[in-house]
Amino acid sequence: MIGLAAMEAPKRDKIRERDGYQKIIRSCKQAEKDGYSWLWIDTCCIDKRSSAELSEAINSMYRWYRNAQRCYVYLGDVDESAFPTEQDFSKFNKSNGWPEWFSRGWTLQELIAPQEVEFFNKNWVSIGTKQDMTSTLEDITRIPSEVLREGQVVRWYSSVVQIMSWAADRKTTRVEDRAYSLLGLFDVNMPMLYGEGSKAFQRLQLEIIRVSSDHSIFAW
User: Fold this and answer.
1) pTM of the predicted model over 0.70
2) Which of 69, 141, 199, 216 is the most buried (most CB within 10 A)?
3) In what order do the strands lie in the sheet with 71-74?
4) Residue of 169 and 219 predicted with greater confidence
5) Per-position DSSP letters for 37-52, written without gaps between them
6) Distance between CA atoms of 175 and 215, rounded to whole angstroms?
7) Dihedral (C-alpha) 8, 14, 20, 25: value to the nearest 10 degrees?
8) Dihedral, CA atoms, 187, 144, 68, 182, nearest 10 degrees?
């Protein structure tokens, strides 16, 4: 925001028209409307130039979502005023017939960890909450309704291999993030080493084995 204020007016106005900028502004307005004083947004609240800050954020993110009073989910590819309840490949052909948000690796913990999740369409109209749509969300994600209602991964319901299956079809920009995005779900920590590629997933498996006696990991 400091850099934006220092820009020349034409360039600044052009940036303000971008979807990412509008998402920040609209989410701030929604938080203020709901009576909150603070809002955390991953796209602008992590200084990715600092490897230490990035590592701390990734290792802490699940806990931050878990402790949040509410999580806003912006579905920029949903035009309707109601949450989609059936697969529509004509609309969401690149994400298995559902909104693109459900195909991303990082959003898995954003769905599970918070107690309250509210969904908004592209016009920032509320179209439902996690608690109201548990059955539909279970159909989309294959995550048991008990886990969605509890707001956390419950070991009595979820084996290692089952949790892995929830993430199997999700995509991340970086290969390493397929592993890093699962740290909180398995309650493990490890340093970030971007550039290690698929070795990140091997390190994740070793950390899970170190803290868990669940042998289903060997079936993955």
Assistant:
1) yes
2) 141
3) 71-74, 117-120, 126-129
4) 169
5) S----TTTSS-TT-HH
6) 25
7) 70
8) 30
